[in-house]
Structure formats: structure tokens, C-alpha cells
Amino acid sequence: MLASLILAVSFQVGPFYEQRPKDDYYAVRPFYAHEGDTTDIVWPLFTKHETWWRALLLIHNQDTGYDRQFEVMPFWFDGETREGEKYWGLFPIYGHHPHIMLVYDWDFVLWPVWMRYRMPRPSEDRWMTSNVVLFPFFHWRDDGSWGVWPICGVGHKRESDHRYALWPFVTWADYREDRDTSGEGSSWWVWPLYGSVDRARERQTMVVPPFFSYTETPEVQRWRLPWPFIEWERGRQRDRTSIFPLWESVDEKRYLDGEVDAHTTRFGYKLVELYDTETRVFPVWAGTKDDSYLRIWPLYEREKTGYDTEHGGVLALMPIRWVPQIDRNWAKFWTFYEFDTCPVYADHSLLWGIIRWRTYAK
Fold first, then answer.
1. Per residue in 341-361, pLDDT tens?
2. How distant, in Å, are the alpha carbons of 12, 61, 279 from that of 16?
3. How far is CA 228 from CA 28, 109, 117, 149, 212, in A?
4. C-beta neighbour count of 279 within 10 angstroms
5. pTM above 0.90?
6. What whole-number distance in Å separates Cα of residue 318 and Cα of residue 281?
7. What is the mean pLDDT of the chain?
8. What integer pLDDT is reported at residue 1 of this predicted model?
9. Dihedral of CA 325/329/334/340: which sign?
10. How close are the terminal C-alpha atoms of the chain, in Å?
């Protein structure tokens, strides 16, 4: 009866086997791990979730009961939409896909010889269809845009008309007034020498872009002299001064009243970061000021798991915070000691549970 009670709570054999039925957690490392709706088999070779599975990071299958999709990237895909439309593709020979990444109704034949796709333009309450021949050299759209890349081209959007000649060396644009953008005006660019933006709510001057620039909008003023080494920014939402890669100071401000809400200081790019609530020295140290988290890499890590509970362990070889896949499948191999504490007692586990003991608070 005692053995049944122990097995109902947790059971562990070295780093190789662990089960916690109350958490729906089982692991035979490094071959198998199951937690909730997720199952890993020799991760990252295979992962299965409630409605999908993925193998070798290239083969993916999803079936929600309403639609399905199977793909072997980038060569093959097939599926069926919620509306019952079936589709398939053998890249680069032929294919039709109703929605992939940011495009809809993507068709191709002998890519890059020909393809066609649609994209939504919600602000105009319509769809835009693009045709491409010998990608990326020739394209035209149903809004009048066209291009013979990189020689010349014209692009239209709701509030602007863009043109280029010998892209990216010469580009220019005209803008109409629009409440969601920087307003009426124009811009032009002769790369790599000079660029200018002159709009109702934006002024920008660029010399040898992107190295030297000045930007002014109702929200921010920004100098780059030169980018990325020296940046100075003062704005409604933040103040920032950076001398890359030596030092950076950032004040995050409340939008309504402009008061500083959080301050961060960094040294050595992001090697040393000083936040109001946390200090990080990558990769050796990370700790919060309220003592809810502490990592001393690669030796030790602990974190509050509830109002008055903590979990921690030795060693902690990952230089970043908890990654679920790493924790399920690999972390136990180097975590020789673990503890779980609450206000009344602390449970300790040494050498993957071979030695266990409990201590009580005084």
C-alpha cells in the first residue's frame, strides 16, 4: 500500500525514468517524454500535440477535426480547409495553397517561372492579387503596381505611391494625408549617400544611411551618430542613450503622463543588465530583487512555483530560463540534486531520487 501511494505521487529511476501521475508526466529519457497534451520522442526528432505532430522539424501534420494539413518542407503539402476545399503541391513543380504564412490562394507552376497569390487589405476592404514571372524580376498587381526588378517599378498602397530605379540605389515616394500614418508629404533616397523624409508628422534626414540620421515625430526625437555605435533618443514612451557595445540606459515611460515606469542599464551590450526588478550577468547570474528567481550558471537554479513554494536544483547547465522541451527530455541528466519547499517542509532528491529525505521548518 505504501508503494502504491508513492507511485501515485512520483517515481524516479536515475535520470532515465520519471513519472508524476498527478501532473500527467512520464519520461524515459532521452527517448520519450509526455506531459499533458505533449509527447516527445527523442526530441527534437519527434513531437506530438493534441491536434498536430512534427518530425525532424520538417515534417508536420495537423488535424483539428475541422481542417487538416500535411507537409514535408519545402517539397510537398496537402490538406483540406474547413470549407471542404482540398489542395496540394509538389514544390517547385505545381501547387495551390489556400493560406501559407502571410499570403492566400498561392498558386505556382515551375517556380520561379510563375506564381500568383492574394493578400488582404483590410483598410481598403478588398483583396490584392499579385502575379510574378521569373521571380523576383517581373511582377504586376491588380491595383496598378508593377515592377521590372531591379531596373524600375511602381508600388501603390492606400496612402502612398512608391517608385524605384536601379533598386536599391534610387527610390522615392509620395504620401497622402492619413490618420494612421505620418501624413501628407514625400520621401527620397539616393543610396548610399543621402535620404530625406518630409511629411506632416515626420521629418528625417539620413547621411550615408543608415549610419547618420536625425528623426523627429510627435512621439520621438532620435539621433544616430553613427549607428549602431551612438544613439540618443527622447520620446513619449521612452528615453534611451546607447554607446554600443559598452553601455546603454533606457527609461520606459507611461504614455499618459510621461512618468518613468521602469529603468534599465546595460553594460557590454546585454552581458550585464540592471533592471528595477532583476539583475542579469549573462550567462553566470540572474536574480530578482524580490528573491523569486535565482540562477548561478552552471551550478544552481531556484524559482518560486507558487505563493509559498519553491523548486530548485544543481546543476543548471542551460544559460537561459526554463525551456519545457529541454526540461522534459534532457535536463535531468545533469540535475543531480533537486528540492521542493513549502512553509512546512522541504523535500530533497539526490542522484535522481536514489537518496530522498524531508526536512521540516522550525
1. 999 999 999 988 788 899 998
2. 8, 29, 34
3. 48, 43, 37, 30, 9
4. 14
5. no
6. 14
7. 90
8. 37
9. positive
10. 30
Which amino acid, 134?
Answer: L
Beta carbons of 316 and 322 less than 8 angstroms apart: no
- Residue 129 vs residues 22, 89, 146, 149: alpha-carbon distances, Å: 53, 20, 12, 18
Which amino acid appears at position 296 of this protein? Answer: I
- DSSP SS3 for 111: coil
| pLDDT less than 70: residues of the chain | 1-10, 322
Query: Which residue type, as a one-letter code, is found at position 348?
Result: H
Whole-number Å distance between alpha carbons of 244 and 275: 18
Q: Which residue's entry shows cell 515616394?
A: 173
Output the DSSP codes for 136-159: TTEEEETTS-EEETTTEEEEE-SS
Q: Which pLDDT does position 9 carry in this prediction?
A: 57
Cβ density class 57-69: b for 16+ within 10 Å, e for less = eeebbeeeeeebb
Domain ranges (residues) in the chain: 155-215, 219-272
What is the structure's pLDDT at 153? 97
What is the rounded CA–CA span in Å between residue 98 and residue 90?
A: 15
Does a cis peptide bond (omega within 30 degrees of 0) precede residue 30? yes
From the list 197, 222, 199, 221, the residue with the least C-alpha distance to 212 is 222
Q: Are 287 and 302 in contact (CB under 8 A)?
A: no
Contacts of 100 (CB under 8 A, 6+ apart): 106
Q: What angle do CA 178, 181, 185 make, to 5 degrees?
A: 75
**CA dihedral of residues 231, 237, 238, 244 (deg, nearest 10):** -40
**Sequence letter at residue 184:** E
Cell 500535440 belongs to residue: 49
Q: What's the one-letter identity of residue 56?
A: L
Amino acid letter for position 27: A
Whole-angstrom Cα distance, residue 161 to residue 120? 18
